[in-house]
Amino acid sequence: MKALNALRISGCEVLPLVEGGKGISISNGESSGAWAACGGVGTFSGVNADSKDANGRTIAQVYHGKTRRERHEELIRYAIAGGIHQAKVAYERASGRGRLHMNILWEMAAAERILNGVLEGAQGLVNGVTCGAGMPYRIAEICARYGVHYYPIVSSARAFRALWKRAYHKFRGWLGAVVYEDPWLAGGHNGITNSEDPERPEPPFPRVYELRQMMREFGLADTPIVMAGGVWCLREWEDWLDNPELGPIAFQFGTRALLTKESPISDAWKHKLLTLKEGDIRLQRFSPTGFYSSAVRNNFLAELEERSERQIPYSIESVGDHLATLEVGARKRIVYVTPHDRERALTWIAQGFTEALRTPDSTLIFVAPAKALEIRNDQINCMGCLSACMFSNWAQNEEGTTGKKADPRSFCIQKTLQNIAHSEDVEFQLMFSGHNAYRFATDPFYANGFIPSVRELVERLQTGN
Questions:
Q1: CA 20, CA 294: separation in Å to the nearest integer?
Q2: Rounded distance between C-alpha atoms, residue 358 and residue 328, angstroms
Q3: Of 7, 19, 36, 76, which alpha carbon lies 20 to 30 A from 199's?
């Protein structure tokens, strides 16, 4: 295994080992501070991060506003306070070593306001900001204003070109690195485009090489690229180290960083990671963001799959093959479906899935009354956690809506991510994961349920294993 050479990241020589940032309190000040203390780059989440009270207890994010707009403002206040708190914790734990970055999602609610609020309240504590899930054009301008490096997350050279041409060339001095995130292997939301097949992964080397060639055209030959998504151990990436075709490369570890003593996830979650098998993690498109995302296939995902399978197209008038009548809703309103779909619907109704919910695609899904009530309550209680939400039809525009029908095939992402972050429930909540998580069960480092400290993990990674 080749020796790891230090890279200059956010103005400091550090190990080319980056903790992957994960949303909703899954990478926090404790974990990122510990990672930085080992000489690498720690990354805490700036997505609705937790705050603590004077007694060290987590402040529950309870919403009192009667309107979405009022709850949206409450969420922003929670997010800014949480981000500042986690920055302070991380800074204390790092003890002046390594670098500390904050991770945000551009498609999260009020991303610019929250980023400005955290950087204003945590000046001197945060060295860099990583940002993906969308096209974060303004991230460069905001970070430059506070003297903080920015790290855009992209899944293709084409995406970086658009960002560079539109905005980043004006702030080249604050570009710390470009994070290439493999859209097929990374955990959480993925950057698969309509021109790419989610079932046919492409090897990362040609895509990263294309990115480096483009960066050289822009005068960024010495700017590091961070390889993210699908990185388990460096021995498998040894040919990338000191490779003149790729230039300076760092490696981001998101999934492996979940399973440490400092990781804030529950014991149930940690145990679940140690039991996964290949094929237990899958790409799915139920997210209210509209992006593909990678998650463990548990009961939560299974219910979404089944919900979507109990689906038929309908029309409000008899058109084409839509000749058969079907009564739906409490008022028994008539819709028209095909004779075949009518028989399917009657079968589902007989099985107890008696509630027919309309989707934006002129289809009906059939769910049990309790699930229908849960869906409607979640939509009503929306706090506007995304810039635009398919599930609730919230949007952070003047109208406060996408203008489209709310989609009952999706779910409240804020609710489920808060629940899995603050409970032992890993079966009925969304459990994001990278596709290599099944390797915990077979890697000898984790034999007999061993959970390392961050320091033990970083030392292990430096051996190539």
A1: 15
A2: 10
A3: 19
Domain 7-283+436-462 CATH superfamily: Aldolase class I (3.20.20.70)
Do 141 and 167 contact (CB within 8 A), yes or no?
Answer: yes
pTM: 0.93
All structural domains of the chain with their residue ranges: 7-283+436-462, 299-421
Name the residue type at position 10: S
Rg (CA), the chain: 23
Q: Judge whether 31 and 260 are in contact, CB under 8 Å.
A: yes
pLDDT in tens, 432-450: 999 999 999 999 999 999 9
Tokens (6 digits) for 274: 């140690």
Whether the CB-CB separation of 261 and 217 falls below 8 Å is answered with no
Give the residue from 136, 175, 168 showing the smallest Cα distance to 10: 175
Long-range contacts of 391-400, Cβ-Cβ distance < 8 Å, separation of 24 or more: 391/288, 392/68, 392/288, 394/68, 394/72, 396/72, 396/109, 396/110, 400/68, 400/69
Task: Provide the 8-state DSSP code for 52.
Answer: B
Q: How far is CA 378 from CA 68, 122, 248, 353, in A?
A: 12, 33, 46, 19
In this predicted structure, what is the pLDDT of residue 135?
A: 85
Strand partners, 284: 293
Tokens for 11?
Answer: 């103005």
In the chain, % of residues over pLDDT 70? 100
Which of 426, 417, 425 has the alpha carbon at shortest distance from 386?
Answer: 417
Question: Distance (Å, rounded) from C-alpha 228 to C-alpha 291?
Answer: 18
